[in-house]
Inverse folding.
């Protein structure tokens, strides 16, 4: 060992038992309590949104029936059961997973890019995913929207979307590491998004007009076409990556100090960055492949989580972002057309922008974007 | 005998440091370096800009592999250790500012426990004790619940030291820790580091531009000359042998022994000498004023005598065979008067 008298040091610490440390106990215990309370509120909010969203629609189902069917001990009619379980639940779960995935992806990107404005949509990662998916959809003959595809073709499209997302992420990160200024990186990301979008437009121009509608839904974001069959792919991939993100929470905290400090703490910076980026690519690629490009959730949710928790600690920010992101998407889905109040439905992006755009403006105007790189 | 057998915490054996380049020969900045930092020692690394301070530090902490030779940390080759094993023995404090968003001082310091934790990152009682001890040792115990972003530069620097101490390292390396601090914060930090060598038993290696601090506080100085050599020794040995003066030599610069630092060489007029009479600080600062005016104070009577009285502002009077009588109050009038006198004196010397 080091031969510097560690034995003596240990003796000293054993004489000072943790509970009688007057500075730590009250304040940190109060904080732990308020964090737990906040998580409880977020879970309840999310559960409430799930139930309300399932209940509302062109055929209203009583909330009591919804709860009964979901908990498996209901006396509800077979019609209601079918509506809830086969028609509405997959969409709600898809929206929930998409929101959580985008939010967790956004939170990781904001740390990896050292940029408070990073998120899959803003930096063009979703557009890259659309490009990847569009190439496969439009390139393979005779198939239209995903729902018409078997699982193998689905995976092909999803894989292409993930690859497209990863491509844009790599380019954006390469530029971000050369240019320090977050605002420049933001503009670069927007331009990459436009570029990918332009390529998609070109592809559309040269293909069958029948598929235009499919791609239009794709670019505006929607969870309304998701079936149980498709949900399996989303659920499995999102679950795997979200669990991976929890493991990465601690090294990501070290990355807040900068790459060199993280390295000095024994963190393999390259590996953490690779795993995290791969996770972000999967999350945003899969989400985009099934629900289209849902904007601003990945940007706003982590900021809301940090603001509510008053910490940047990823161990709580990542789960809180997931809950908030899921809630935001479900709320947006409710406003956009799941409420049964209107016949027409809005694109999800039109609603999420109401949450996301103010957050971007707030971050820009409060000077948080002006970090020294 | 025990002193001699104490193992080095950090050793460089025949290390060549520099940069490897693609498809071209490597650039050697420092060649055949032998260094040794023992537990509880404060070592300062000094040298002119561009001499290779950063290169040497990066090589010593294992951030870049040596071109030749070995860096031994606790007797183990630093390049052979895993990043985690290295982080348990060696901690660094960098010059770059950190922006961690919203994080409390205690949370930032707790990051230092990372190399000791399992992959789940769960803290144990000994982790908490180490964090508490680090906070107290670095003098930031009072700040533990404050957000890092609210602190001053000096306080942040101390928090980063606390974070490094939480790693419980055998070697603590600091890259120009005093760079952005004012004089008072610098002295505080220096005093803290000196205390830490005793309380933690770690070897502390720091690079600095502050020669006076390096010579006054360190047990050992590593001096990088501009020629790719590193000389290790006691501060007094390096100063006395003129090694420091040579390393920092330049136009209009001299090593001032009393101030223990390199100072601007006095721009003196030949022959403009005078004897200063007086006591204590009044005399010391009178000589300072005389030099600033371009004159040279000497010990012997040369027909020009400056007498100063203690008291503020200082009263002075100039007298003697070779100088017109003059008197005044305050050193500004003294310097102005002497500067007026300097030009005709040169002719006196030439003719007489």
């Amino acid at each position: 060992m080091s031969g510097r008298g560690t034995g003596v040091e240990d003796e000293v610490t054993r004489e000072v038992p943790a509970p009688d440390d007057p500075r730590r106990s009250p304040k940190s215990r109060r904080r732990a309590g308020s964090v737990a309370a906040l998580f409880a509120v977020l879970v309840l909010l999310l559960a409430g949104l799930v139930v309300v969203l399932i209940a509302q629609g062109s055929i209203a189902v009583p909330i009591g029936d919804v709860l009964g069917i979901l908990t498996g001990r209901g006396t509800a009619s077979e019609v209601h059961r079918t509506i809830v379980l086969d028609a509405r639940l997959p969409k709600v779960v898809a929206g929930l997973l998409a929101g959580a995935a985008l939010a967790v992806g956004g939170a990781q990107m904001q740390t990896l890019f050292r940029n408070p404005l990073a998120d899959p949509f803003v930096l063009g990662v979703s557009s890259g995913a659309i490009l990847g998916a569009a190439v496969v959809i439009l390139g393979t003959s005779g198939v239209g929207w995903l729902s018409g595809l078997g699982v193998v073709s689905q995976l092909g499209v999803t894989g292409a979307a993930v690859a497209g997302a990863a491509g844009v992420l790599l380019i954006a990160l390469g530029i971000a590491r050369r240019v320090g200024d977050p605002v420049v990186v933001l503009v670069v990301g927007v331009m990459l998004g436009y570029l990918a979008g332009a390529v998609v437009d070109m592809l559309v121009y040269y293909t069958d007009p029948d598929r235009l509608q499919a791609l239009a839904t794709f670019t505006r974001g929607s969870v309304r076409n998701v079936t149980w069959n498709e949900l399996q792919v989303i659920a499995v991939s999102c679950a795997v990556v979200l669990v991976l993100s929890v493991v990465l929470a601690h090294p990501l905290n070290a990355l807040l100090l900068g790459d060199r400090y993280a390295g000095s703490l024994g963190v393999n910076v390259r590996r953490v960055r690779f795993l995290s980026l791969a996770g972000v690519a999967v999350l945003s690629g899969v989400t985009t492949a099934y629900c289209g490009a849902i904007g601003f959730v990945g940007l706003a949710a982590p900021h809301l989580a940090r603001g509510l928790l008053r910490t940047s600690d990823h161990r709580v920010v990542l789960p809180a972002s997931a809950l908030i992101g899921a809630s935001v998407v479900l709320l947006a889905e409710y406003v956009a057309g799941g409420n049964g109040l209107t016949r027409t439905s809005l694109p999800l992006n039109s609603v999420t922008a109401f949450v996301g755009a103010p957050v971007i403006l707030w971050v820009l105007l409060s000077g948080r974007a002006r970090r020294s790189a | 005998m025990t002193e001699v057998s104490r193992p080095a915490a950090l050793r460089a054996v025949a290390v060549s440091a520099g940069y490897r380049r693609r498809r071209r020969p490597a650039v050697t900045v420092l060649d055949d370096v032998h260094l040794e930092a023992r537990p509880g020692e404060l070592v300062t690394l000094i040298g002119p800009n561009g001499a290779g301070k950063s290169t040497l530090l990066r090589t010593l902490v294992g951030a870049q592999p040596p071109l030749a030779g070995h860096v031994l940390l606790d007797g183990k080759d630093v390049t052979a250790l895993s990043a985690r094993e290295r982080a348990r023995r060696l901690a660094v404090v960098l010059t770059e500012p950190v922006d961690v968003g919203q994080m409390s001082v205690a949370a930032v310091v707790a990051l230092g426990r990372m190399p000791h934790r399992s992959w789940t990152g769960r803290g144990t009682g000994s982790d908490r004790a180490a964090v508490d001890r680090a906070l107290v040792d670095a003098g930031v115990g009072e700040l533990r619940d404050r957000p890092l972003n609210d602190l001053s530069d000096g306080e942040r620097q101390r928090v980063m030291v606390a974070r490094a101490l939480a790693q419980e390292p055998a070697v603590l390396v600091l890259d120009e820790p005093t760079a952005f601090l004012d004089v008072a914060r610098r002295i505080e930090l220096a005093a803290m580091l000196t205390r830490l060598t005793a309380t933690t038993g770690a070897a502390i290696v720091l690079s600095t531009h502050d020669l006076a601090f390096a010579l006054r506080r360190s047990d050992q100085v590593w001096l990088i000359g501009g020629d790719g050599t590193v000389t290790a020794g006691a501060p007094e040995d390096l100063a006395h042998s003129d090694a420091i003066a040579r390393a920092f030599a330049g136009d209009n610069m001299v090593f001032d022994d009393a101030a223990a630092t390199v100072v601007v060489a006095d721009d003196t007029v030949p022959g403009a000498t005078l004897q200063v009479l007086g006591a204590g600080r009044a005399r010391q600062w009178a000589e300072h004023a005389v030099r600033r005016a371009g004159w040279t104070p000497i010990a012997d009577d040369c027909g020009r005598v400056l007498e100063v009285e203690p008291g503020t502002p200082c009263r002075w009077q100039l007298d003697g065979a070779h100088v017109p009588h003059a008197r005044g109050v305050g050193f500004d009038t003294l310097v102005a008067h002497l500067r007026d006198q300097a030009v005709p004196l040169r002719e006196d010397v030439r003719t007489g």
Q: What stands out?
A: Chain A touches chain B at residues 1-6, 9-10, 13, 16, 18, 21, 23-24, 27, 114, 247, 249-250, 253-254, 256-258, 260-261, 263-268, 306, 310-313, 315, 371-372 (CB under 8 Å). Confidence is low (pLDDT under 50) at residues 1-25, 141-145 of chain A.
